[in-house]
Amino acid sequence: MCEFCSKHKRKKWFLDPDNYSEKMLENKRRMNILQKLAGFGLDYELRDTAEAVRWTKHPLTKDVAKHIINKIASSTHSGQVITLQDALEIIDLSDNHVLFACGCRRLTNNKEKMCCLNFGPMRDINMGVRPKEKMEEVDRYEAKLRLEEWHRQGLFSEVIYAVPPFPLALCNCDAKYCLPVKYRFMYDLRFGLLKGHEIARVDSKRCVGCKECISRCQFGAMFLSPDENKVVIDPTKCFGCGLCSDVCKKNAISMINRQDVPGGKDRW
């Protein structure tokens, strides 16, 4: 299990109903972070992080910078990749679902997309901080429909936390725009985006080598074996989003526990 699950004694920290309770808001540090993230505060957070990660490229500061940024992110605000199935369960555990424009797309000057699904206190906090910010309230049924549609579009889901183990949002993005993905791959910041609890596995007997799953992989974990014309998955690269398994018409891909996979175990 990941660090958060080990620390908070739950197989999947984001599926623990207690982590969605009002009691979690008694933490002053957590509330300060939620207030800072409200409205366009997230844009400033992403911008400031982008400035800070540059120090990880400097020969004299890279090791110290990585250590400090990872430590801060692990204890304050970041996220973890999850499957669509887990995202749908989160909707049942949470309330006050609202959609906001994706901050990553906004900062990269891309077309606005209302795919940042917040819940819990974020609706009321945002209304108090920036009442004119574009926001769309949705019920549980609509929230699930949106998640399924984004998944069909090829967007992976990540659950966002504020002082773990408190989940506050489901971001749905792709690697082209997702800044946490860029922090992880370009600057080697593991806590920029944690890998998920599952890893995709291919049943070679069912796989016909159509490569449709490869086109869905956001993390470069899949390739076609030229000798067997079968898809192969690198467990060290798989983030466990499940985008590949959902499009396989032969049901050749399943999601299994990361800790049961050699090469994937403890690689978060």
Explain what this protein looks like in three dimensions.
This protein is an alpha+beta fold and 268 residues long. The protein has two domains: 3-192, no CATH class; 198-260, Alpha-Beta Plaits. 37% of the residues lie in helices and 17% in strands. It is built from eleven helices and ten strands. It has helices at 3-8, 28-37, 41-53, 62-75, 84-93, 103-107, 122-129, 140-152, 179-187, 212-216, 243-247, and strands spanning 77-82, 98-100, 116-118, 136-137, 156-162, 167-173, 198-202, 222-225, 230-233, 253-257. The strands form three sheets. A six-stranded antiparallel beta sheet has the order 1-5-6-3-2-4. Strands 7-10 form a two-stranded antiparallel ribbon. It has a two-stranded antiparallel ribbon with strand order 8-9. α5 (84-93) runs antiparallel to α8. The longest helix has 14 residues, at 62-75. The radius of gyration is 18 Å and the shape is globular. The model has no long low-confidence stretch (mean pLDDT 92).
